[in-house]
Amino acid sequence: MTRLNLRMFTILMVLAVIMAACGPAATPTESIPDEPEAPAPADTQPVEAIPEGGGTVVIAMAAAPVSLDPADHRSRESETVIRNMFDGLVTRDNTSGVHLQLAESMDWVDEQTLEIKLREGVKFHDGTEMTADDVVFTFERIINDNQIEYPEPHTSPRKGLIAPLESIEKTGDHSVVMHFSGPWPPAMQLLVHQQIVPKAYIEEVGTQGFIEQPIGTGPFKFVSAQPGYEEVVLERFDDYYGGSPDLAPAGTACVEKVVFRVIPEASTRVSALLAGEVDIITAVPQDLIPNLEANPDIQVTTAAGTQPKWIELNVNQAPFDDVLVRLAMNYAVDKDLIIEQIYGGRAVALPGPLSPFNNFANTSLSPYPYDTTKALDLLKQAGWEDTDGDGFLDKDGETFAFTIDTIESWRPLAEAVADMYRAIGIDANVRFWEYSVIKPQLQAGERMAWLDDWGDSAFDPVGHFEAKWHGFVADTPYGRGNFSGYNNERVNELTEMGETTPDETERHTLYDEAQQLVYDEAPAVFLLLPEEVEAASVNISNWAPASDSRQNMHDVCKSE
Amino acid sequence: MKAIKVLERILATLPIMFGVAIIVFFFIRLTPGDPVDIMMGQGGAISTGEIEQLREEFHLNEPLHIQLWYFLRDAVQGDLGYSYVLKRPVVELIAERLPATIELAMGALFFSLVIAVPIGIISAVRQNSLLDRLSMSGAFLGISMPGFWLGIVLILVFSVYLHWLPVQGRISVGIELEERTGFFVLDSLLSGNLEALKSSLLHLVLPSITLGAAVAAVTARVLRSSMLETLRSDYVTLARSKGASEWVVVMKHALRNALIPTITVLGLQIGILLGGNMVIETVFGWPGLGRMVVKAIFDRDFPLIQGSVMIYAFIFVMASLIVDILYTYLNPKISL
Lengths: 560, 336
Description:
The complex is a heterodimer of chains A (560) and B (336). Chain A has helices at residues 2-22, 76-85, 132-143, 187-191, 199-212, 266-274, 289-293, 323-331, 335-341, 372-381, 411-423, 435-443, 461-469, 489-500, 504-521; strands at 56-61, 90-92, 98-100, 103-110, 113-118, 165-172, 175-180, 220-225, 231-236, 257-262, 280-281, 298-303, 309-313, 347-349, 394-395, 398-399, 401-407, 427-433, 449-453, 524-530, 532-537, 540-541, 557-558. Chain A is of the alpha+beta class. In chain A, the strands form six sheets. Chain A has a seven-stranded mixed beta sheet with strand order 8-9-10-1-11-21-12, sandwiched between helices. In chain A, strands 14-20-13-19-17-18 form a six-stranded mixed beta sheet. By secondary structure, chain B is an all-alpha fold. Helix content of chain B is 75%, strand content 0%. In chain B, 41% of the residues are buried. Chains A and B meet through helix 1, strand 1, strand 10, helix 6 and helix 12 of A and helix 2, helix 3, helix 5, helix 7 and helix 12 of B.
């Protein structure tokens, strides 16, 4: 499919050029902000956003939700739709700030106990009031085994997102207490991803009835869905309590109806936007952005991405068992050129093992500069030199050759990097895989270099450090995505300490050291972090993509 | 008599379906990639503790022959299991998606026949004329043009620049249609909803042309060559010498016989129309079976793949049966 996409883009580009040449001159109108938009400060918010005009907003998504049950999915598309129908205790703004939503206050009694006071007068879409019972029910449905009974009893796939939660108890009609197995610093960032469901309703109609007609406390209520959630129609909930008071505008939603439609092919999404069939499109591929920007009726906006890309080098096999070689690999890549040419400037070079937008990114680190002299120098120190004059480096009679394994989606990036390696005398090739096919080989340490990304929208280092930079430990989440074989005792220790240290300053110190270690030992070539690009018709206002791919339709207005 | 023969043929498909089921069962399990592992995803969507539990739930820990036994035992009772990823019964998922796919296939078939039959006949009757040459080069283009490319070009021209036809989907946003059969055109007719009828027909045009282009091209070429052959045969000469009009000669004597190879080819093309449309479904955002199957393959969603492939196989077998039945009408000398 991706190969097909690429071909299609190329063709579309050629056609677009021809048609642009015949069409009227277009002027770019939208400038791209360098920084993701900061949330509006609370004191500048209007008193109440009065719904005006209403209208229907159609959003084209690349993939369909798998379920509209907030407890029964692990997909961003599902969450995109769900979070317009369901609110959580807390929510996130378009960057990484967490704000109270259904909770009125949240206080840590001690490191393991969280006291939550719920907002009163919040109504579900069926008119019943949300109480502590619903909140307890919601979390027990997730953390206890086999609570979801349809089609066969199974445990919520969201349990892993809140694993340290041991129990939750009601302490009043509008207050609950959460007990955690230990200190859990990223609690707030991860509670964003759990939405409150109505106890009485689910007990009455069951999971099957609930997914046919979901009911939440969110700004929109469910109207209808096409099979496979190819289209989901929502309408404004007029009894909405207003949402997080920190995030302007508070109040009921601006538009009357929201329609989520699935259009898997990127060029079709772009065409649908150009033809005026849809108002907002997600996941705009970099190479189609110029077409959209040239159109005065379209606005293109970006948000900081959450999926850093790197090449993990197998640290247990020659030549990458030598840190000098790994450093050279980092110096040999011209990231700025790649960002400019492949990403149209819509990406940032990775300064180390974490996204620079992570709340705990080590700010003293900067991306390895492009310096081929230094790279060759390091390689020479490691014994790699072109002694036989064939244009490739060699050592003990062996040529420096390796394969970058990746998936089809990253073809342009992988080929550009391989070219840069060949330019300094390393015989680098690229091979494309289906991830599920190569994964066992990666885990077994059988591959040399793996180029891919790793998503984490929580803006907390736990996700990336636990999965990528901690050594692999069977039957734990540690190192589950560690394909370099990197295993540094100190980094492991710091990662584990970071997970349970509640004090923020202390956590900064721990993660700063861990990042510095990974940076210096370079188990990977730290490449870049692309931005999330979305586009909308100029009729749409108050709209901005969020880093966690949420489509917050509550704020959006549409003018005819 | 014919009814019994037809019934016999339908029964004869059972061993074929059985064979297909077994082949699909083993082949998807031979493909590298583990469904539970894929479900785990980057975020560790299922914890390491749950992995074993899920494998057990899906019977993936059992020996293959036991798994096969479970599958066949349930399949005989019409239960194709439930999708690992979508967590819904496979039969239900297929039933929801199949109408969209069939509707598109019918649209494509209609389009290709409307194009191919006149072109095939005229090119044969006026062999080597300009029209013949033009339409045969057109057919050549139709065969060689990749569907996705044609689709994108059609979208750009007719939707983005001319605004004549919709870009994607089955019906416009905001049109309410009471669903009865899942075939939108039929549902609009049944509920007398003219707005929905117009919208669903307009939405069918571009995908039908894109999907039907290759079929039209093949059909036109086959019809032309078989027409050329029959037009040169003795009974056509006889008909002409009897003084029959050229219209009767062509349409009655020649066409009927020329249709046999055409229908054979068309029967095979039905498979392409139904099974080969995942690309078209992707380009036009058409919510059909093909797209679901592709996703199921990437997810290694075994029950969903098995169920869908069996449905495809069943349709293929039925298409060839219908072709055989049609033969008996076109040429009474052929029997089932």
